[in-house]
Amino acid sequence: MAQFYEGIGRRKESTARVRLMSGSGKFTVNEKDGAAYFTRLGDLDDILRAFNATGQDATKYDVSVMVNGGGTTGQTEAVRLGLARALVLINGDWTSPLRKKGLLTRDARVKERKKPGLKKARKAPTYTKR
Fold first, then answer.
1. Which of 98, 107, 119, 130 has the fewest CB within 10 Å, making it most exposed?
2. Span 23-47, mean pLDDT?
């Protein structure tokens, strides 16, 4: 079995396990092609920004991703973080350029919980005088 580097990324309710190994540039997400899984315009480019930041050619690596939970945005950003973390395992010198682009920072913002007596986290029911 080929050696791989694994990075785990999380965002909102999404978790992504990203594995990098040397190969021919194949990008698979949950056993599907990456372009078929992330169909929204710009999502795939956003994920692969880590390769541009390090000056690496994305076609030198095979990327295998298992992602679950959350929606499209959360999954995209979780995969992006996992990929950046896997690249740091390959070469620790890439930490600085990745950090400068904000690719190694975990975005901790999650949905706020609903409070009793309110309709959503902060939305109150309409006030009626009579």
1. 130
2. 93
Residue 79: CATH number of its domain: 3.30.230.10
- Structural domains in the chain (count): 1
Per the structure block, which two tokens stand in for 113? 């919980």
Please tell me the pTM assigned to this model: 0.91
Mean pLDDT, the chain, integer? 94
Distances from the Cα of 7 to the Cα of 95, 113, 116, 127, angstroms? 14, 29, 38, 49
* Within a domain: 76: yes
Given this model, what pLDDT does residue 93 score? 94
Q: How far apart are CA 52 and CA 97, in angstroms?
A: 10
Domain that holds residue 35: 5-100
Task: Please identify which residue in the block is written with the tokens 């890439």.
Answer: 94
- Tell me, yes or no, whether 111 lies in a domain: no
Q: Is the pLDDT of residue 1 over 60?
A: no
How far, in Å, CA of 115 to CA of 123, rounded? 9
Q: Are 29 and 82 in contact (CB under 8 A)?
A: no
Longest dimension (CA), the chain: 73
Q: What is the pLDDT of residues 37-57, one digit of tens each?
A: 999 999 999 999 999 999 999
